[in-house]
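User: Predict the structure for this protein chain, please.
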Amino acid sequence: METNAAYLAIGPVFATPTKPGRPGVTLDYVRWAAANVDRPWFAIGGITLENIDSVSGSRRASHLRGVRNFERPRRRPRLPAIPQTPSLRAFAKIMSLLVVGTTALDSIKTPHAENPRLLGGSASHAAVAASFFTKPHLIGAVGDDFPRKYINLYRKHGLNLDGFQQLSGQTFHWSGEYELNMNNRRTLDTVLGVIEDFSPTLTAAQTRLPYVLLANCVPDLQANVLDQMHRPKFVVADTMDLWLNIARAPLLKLLPRLDCLVLNDSEASQLAEEDNVIAAIPRIHKLGPKYVIVKKGEHGSILSGPQGSLYRPGISA
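Assistant: Here is the predicted structure, written as structure tokens:
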């Protein structure tokens, strides 16, 4: 308790093969920690899916043996098709989603290949991914150089394009180079194009959509869209280090209006001004968002919310 550690491990709670001959510290000690430890802490040791509910008072628990002993199936099971019943269609309507962000072209170079003018942009990828679960409304702008095949792709996925504009000028274009370690990249060129002055006006129907994803873009644009919404049920925003560097004040003003903020581990540390990500997350909650998702690359992600934290490992694709 007198150290400067960013988080502590409390345990082993139960007897565990990884610490032979060492008895558990008992659940009374866990309850004591819940009442007295003033920094993030994890219950560890002998915790399984069968006994985790008994670890009362702990908001974070480590379940390593179960993950280590998990046997991946040799062949992916074939799932039955889900019938499109009226109830499912009604559910998709309830889940109607507004996605605003960049619709762009990316030129990407890696040590193995190089591809110019690929479909890019935060809103493009978020809306297409969401189309497998609902009917997203895409809000974005592209130039007259935007390939028709990408607009056809949007339509193929059933995106509502009422808020999608094709303007005179250049499409937002990002060019970058990735190293062998894909966490490391270098921006070669950025052309803002038509999004530099883009300020969307939502239709009456769009302002009443219940779920909003403010995909990564300028915080002022995210706030502009949110100003037009009529009491959405849940608002998620994604951000990045660029806005933390050049638009920190507008971003901080936006945070109390969000239900969930998404960012990567280095951005979480930068936002909270705290090097340790685990210690940074509570500071981000105090800035406004009830939920925080921290992306950790190949190490997976962390979801933090009122009920505690959920850690998910990266999965090879």
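The mean pLDDT is 86.
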